[in-house]
Amino acid sequence: MDFCFFDSSAAVKNYIAEIGSNWVKSILINIPKTEIYMTSITEVEVVAAFARRRKGMSLSLIDANTAITQFKSDFSRDFNTIDITAKIISQAVNLSDKHSLRGYDAVQLASALEIYLRLDALGIDFSLTPFTFVSADNGLNAAAISEGLSVENPNNYP
User: What is the CATH number of the domain that holds 37?
Assistant: First the structure.
């Protein structure tokens, strides 16, 4: 994979051990050969996921704080981010209605589709350098496939 879009459910797997973590790490180790894209809200979603696990005590205080610090550093340094625009929100509204997606899931998918269009406009040949949507959310993945994206679910790689 040369271009990947990671949603929050995939991104967290780089920082805490769960099903699919090794597969995610194998992709992220190829930065910058593999360009990783995320939407700006992913930073909020991932930090919130670690904070919830810390509060629920399924992640220790030290592990949660380490994961948050490392992710925030990586997010600003290693990942290409796309800001949420009125165009993306409009598309997310349509995707949410069409596929019965949760709000942020629809924003994730709309952002991935926008990045795909931008890369396509640059003349990227996706048969040579594929664009892959990476998510551990089956419903979101089904919607992404329906919208024409190639999808990988890290949970398929235990």
Answer: 3.40.50.1010
